[in-house]
Write a structure and sequence with these properties.
Blueprint (H helix, E strand, L loop, with lengths): L7 H11 L22 H16 L7 H8 L4 E3 L7 H4 L11 H19 L8 H29 L3 H4 L4 E4 L13 E3 H18 L11 H15 L2 H17 L10 H4 L12 E5 L12 H4 L8 E3 L1 H8 L10 E4 L2 E4 L15 E5 H14 L3 H15 L12 H12 L5 H7 L4 E2 L20 E2 L12 H6 L12
Antiparallel strand pairs: 1-5, 2-3, 4-8, 6-7, 9-10
The chain binds calcium ion.
């Protein structure tokens, strides 16, 4: 009898990627040590680095996994229907032709984290330093696995807040060694349990120090606060975000200042000056994701692929002194987000990708506090973001509404892969409003037929990829509804 493996798709994907695309000449994401090759802590570290290599791919966090939630919502738009982001903007995909890479790269990360986690407790240590390193690797692997599962949930499952997590999540795969496993989808609630348990345990073990390109405790806690916020557990979201902010700031992280903000994105952060990016994808000229990367896609000197909408541009412009106007760069009347700035001496394709910023921890705390009707904390955490953007502005003395927090979040996090999820988890609508402006006028919203929708629209989640449906009989009646 023929047997299948859940990861059949990954092999297909890697094969497709490795031939014919010279710009994607990276460490292949499948070049990972097997469990049997991990006998030392140093080898576990090497295996963990392979997870970051997978994340760096432009089909993963150097590109597609980030832009998806921006171009499917209201504040960003494909420059034309033929651009890479055009089919996402127009929801022009079906269960038979939807992209599979979101699924395969994230499950690849999970598989490689599992390889590390299945071996790590058995590895010998010679001294306390090595034992600490082993703990850190274990914590990091758990937190990265949580990141991957959480992003699978954001892509493939309806929001937890829609039905208390009763609908279908994704298959949970604990044992990488079991290549014949064909798990069905767990519920969203079960998957959240897995994510929260991984992050909670991981945060007890993961390192606190700055480590270039790696997740540490403060990034992981910010991610956990995001997960609680998505779950509607606002008390824990607030508490966790506060812990992240306090810990990060004690360890030298700080919100960028108004003066730093326009160009801070190009900083080559280091332990002496970590800035506010808590997790970034480090791209180098010698290790570049190439032209499918966010740096190249978002640039008037690159593929000119997607940009902010005219209505969002006007929203920012309504406060001309808001420093965030300076990260909009207009080229040929098209307003691009200029957050993916290359580091010194690099080409635009080599720009690092910020995945978790301290600003988000503040916004998570403010949103959770607002929902808890804790106005003092809502003001406390929103005000630094408001003042940083324009020192003339403040929310001191105001009763902060949820709309006010989400407006600030929208302005602060544009282009960083949050918008669709922020609207859907809060049961708000995507409204693609056309606007006109003399400075930017080239991109009309109306070339999609989906201009106004909420979370009852079936295409707010991707279909489970066809290859996965074909390979795993347990999923036979578990395709997302509507596809
Ligand atoms: Ca770089």
């Amino acid at each position: 009898m023929k047997t299948y493996r859940i990861f059949s798709l990954i092999a297909l994907c890697a094969a497709a990627v490795s031939c014919g695309n010279d710009w994607l000449d990276l460490e292949p994401s499948t070049r990972v040590p097997s469990e049997t090759s991990i006998q030392l802590v140093s080898e576990a570290k090497y295996a963990l680095n392979s997870v970051y290599n997978t994340m760096q791919d432009p089909y993963a966090y150097s590109g597609r996994l980030v832009y998806y939630a921006d171009v499917t919502a209201d504040d960003m738009i494909a420059v034309s229907s033929t651009k890479r982001t055009g089919n996402y903007y127009r929801f022009n995909f079906s269960k038979d032709n939807a992209p599979a890479s979101h699924w395969s790269y994230l499950y690849n990360m999970i598989a490689n984290c599992n390889i590390v986690l299945n071996k790590i407790d058995q590895l010998p240590t010679q001294n306390d330093d090595e034992k600490t390193l082993r703990d850190n690797i274990k914590g990091e692997a758990k937190c990265l696995r949580a990141l991957a599962y959480f992003d699978l949930l954001r892509l493939y499952s309806y929001p937890y807040t829609m039905d208390g997590g009763a609908s279908l999540g994704v298959p949970l795969v604990d044992k990488a060694a079991d290549i014949n496993s064909k798990p069905a989808r767990s519920t969203v609630a079960q998957c959240y349990d897995q994510v929260i348990s991984d992050l909670t345990e991981g945060c007890e073990l993961i390192g606190e120090d700055f480590q270039k390109g790696h997740l540490n405790k403060w990034g992981a806690l910010t991610l956990l606060s995001r997960v609680y916020l998505y779950k509607g557990d606002n008390a824990k979201a607030l508490k966790t975000a506060q812990e992240a902010i306090e810990g990060a700031e004690e360890n030298g992280y700080a919100l960028w200042t108004n003066e730093e903000y326009p160009t801070a994105w190009s900083n080559d952060a280091n332990a002496g000056k970590p800035g506010e990016v808590l997790l970034e994808i480090v791209n180098l000229t010698t290790d570049s994701p190439g032209k499918e990367s966010l740096g190249y896609l978002n640039s008037g000197s690159g593929y000119k692929d997607y940009c902010v909408t005219v209505s969002f541009y006007k929203l920012l412009q309504s406060d001309p002194k808001d420093v965030r106007n300076k990260i909009i760069k207009i080229a040929s009347k098209i307003p691009y987000v200029n957050k993916f700035q290359p580091q010194e001496g690099e080409a635009i394709a080599d720009a690092n990708i910020p995945l978790i910023r301290l600003s988000e921890a503040y916004l998570n705390a403010a949103e959770a506090a607002c929902k808890l009707e804790d106005n003092a904390n809502a003001v406390k955490y929103l005000d630094p973001i408001v003042r940083r953007a324009n020192p003339d502005n403040t929310v001191e003395g105001e009763t902060v509404t949820l709309d006010r927090v989400l407006l600030e979040r929208r302005k602060e996090l544009v282009g960083e892969g949050h918008r669709l999820y922020d609207l859907m988890r809060n049961n708000l609508r995507v409204q693609r409003v056309d606007a006109k402006d003399s400075k930017v006028s080239k991109v009309p919203a109306h070339y999609s037929k989906y201009l106004d929708f909420d979370r009852t629209f079936y295409m707010i989640v991707l279909p489970i990829p066809k290859a996965e449906m074909d390979a795993n009989p347990s999923l036979a009646d578990q395709q997302n509804p509507g596809y």
